[in-house]
Amino acid sequence: MPAIKKQIPPQPPLSFEQMIGAITSAHSQLTAQAGKAVNLALTLRNWLIGGYIQEFEQAGADRAAYGARLLDAIAERLADQGVAGVAVRSLRLYRQFYVAYPAIRQTVPAELGILFPASVKRQTPSAESAVPSDRLLSTLSFSHFVELLQIEDILKRHFYEIECMRGNWSLRELKRQIGSLYFERSALSTDKNKLSDQTHVAAEVRPALTIRDPYVFEFLGIKPQEVMGESALEDGLLDKLSDFLLELGHGFCFEARQKRILIGDQHYFIDLIFYHRVLKCHVLLELKLAGFNHEHIGQLNTYVNWYKRHMLEAGDNPPIGILLCTEKNHALVDYAMAGMDNQLFVSRYQLELPSKEALEKFIEQHLKEL
After folding, report:
1. CATH number at 230-369
2. What pLDDT, on the 0 to 100 scale, is given for residue 185?
3. What is the pTM of this model?
4. pLDDT tens for residues 317-327?
5. Handedness of CA 296, 297, 301, 307 (dihedral sign)
6. 256 phi, psi to nearest 5 deg
7. What is the dihedral of CA 48, 50, 55, 61, to 10 degrees?
């Protein structure tokens, strides 16, 4: 007897809400897949760069011709070739990444690892991560690896690898846990499971790997200011705030938005930067969609001090920092006046910059509109 084909019942027509749900689900899943694919490609690229440098330093045919200038020569040639993210500092980081995670070689496509010698010097087994390299690569962003590489104690690094993967921690959460000495507290705790449960309940979880990352920006050739806004509300306020200051006619000249600066091995972003022609100084503005706390002013003061050290030109006055903090029906303004001891300049500053009241009114008005 011929097989009887099973009849598939016809699908009922989609409702509007079902359609919206299906689109949202497809968007979320495919965006997460894209983020993971980009992160995996970036991480493997950086590991390979570190590997090729390490192997060349050890057995390169003409390595003696470059000596101590090897990394400078590599950075210059790769920049000429249009390769992004290859400053000398980054090349050192990639080499460190290769040495710390040798097992990643198992995940490298054969055609990309073809230049490695047949037997690569490997670390002792104790240095290897207890987590399979493919899981590490699929779960952690390269920025997570950068943070982990700063931990010299191998056992401690493996601890944070596992905990970060267990809790799907954001980069910020990983930094927070390291800063709170979670590893050391766990070692001293008599009930490690209870401490772990409490830690993960309170931890910030990231929903999916994201491409909103400075290393990914460089890799993809994206300008940070194009995508760094944390929310539509913040973007809208920064747009209107920039227009507001320029329309005052007091000498504000727009310079940058989401200006990326490098302090140590960390990238930071300053919301808005202007140059004031009358005051002859840079004006750095930070917007926080929250009430004021001491961390905000500390962050802004750090930016002001960085600008003072690295961006001050002959004839410039010290930079000024303006902090805008918002919360419901309230706006608080603080000026960071680091280094402005010249009383004449302070007086001119008070005349030329918008008043605290004007900025408070601006914040309250536009928060309602947006």
Report:
1. 3.40.1350.10
2. 92
3. 0.67
4. 888 888 888 77
5. positive
6. -160, 155
7. 90
205 beta partners: 169
Query: Look-up: residue for tokens 């409490």?
Result: 198
HEC assignment per residue over the chain:
CCCCCCCCCCCCCCCHHHHHHHHHHHHHHHHHHHHHHHHHHHHHHHHHHHHHHHHHHHHCCCHHHCHHHHHHHHHHHHHHCCCCCCCHHHHHHHHHHHHHCHHHHHHCCCCCCCCCCCCCCCCCHHHCCCCCHHHHHHHCCHHHHHHHHCCCCHHHHHHHHHHHHHHCECHHHHHHHHHCCHHHHHHHCCCHHHHHHHHHHHCCECCCCCCCCHHHHHHHCCCHHHCCCCCHHHHHHHHHHHHHHHHCCCCEEEEEEEEEEEECCEEEEEEEEEEECCCCEEEEEEEECCCCCHHHHHHHHHHHHHHHHHCCCCCCCCCEEEEEEEECCEEEEEEECCCCCCHHHHHHHHHHCCCHHHHHHHHHHHHHHC
Report the range of poorest mean pLDDT among 82-86, 150-154, 323-327.
Answer: 323-327
Residues 136-159 as b or e (16 or more Cβ within 10 Å = b): bbebbbbbbbbbbbebeeeebbbb
The rounded distance, in Å, linking the Cα atoms of 65 and 67 is 6
Return the exposure string of 239-265: e unless at least 16 CB atoms fall within 10 Å of the residue's CB, then b: ebbbebbeeeeeebeeebbbbbbeeee
pLDDT band at 6 (very low <50, low <70, confident <90, very high): low
Answer for the pair 298, 323: CB distance below 8 angstroms, yes or no. Answer: no
- As annotated, the residues of the chain forming the CATH 3.40.1350.10 domain(s) are 230-369
Cα torsion 207, 209, 214, 220: sign: negative
Supply 341's token pair. 């001891």
In sequence order, the β-bridge partners of residue 267 are 262
Cβ atoms of 292 and 334 closer than 8 Å: yes
Between these two residues, 232 and 68, which has the higher pLDDT value?
Answer: 68
What average pLDDT does range 41-54 have in this prediction?
92
Question: In degrees to the nearest 10, what's the CA dihedral of 269, 272, 273, 276?
Answer: -160
Give percent of the chain above pLDDT 90: 19
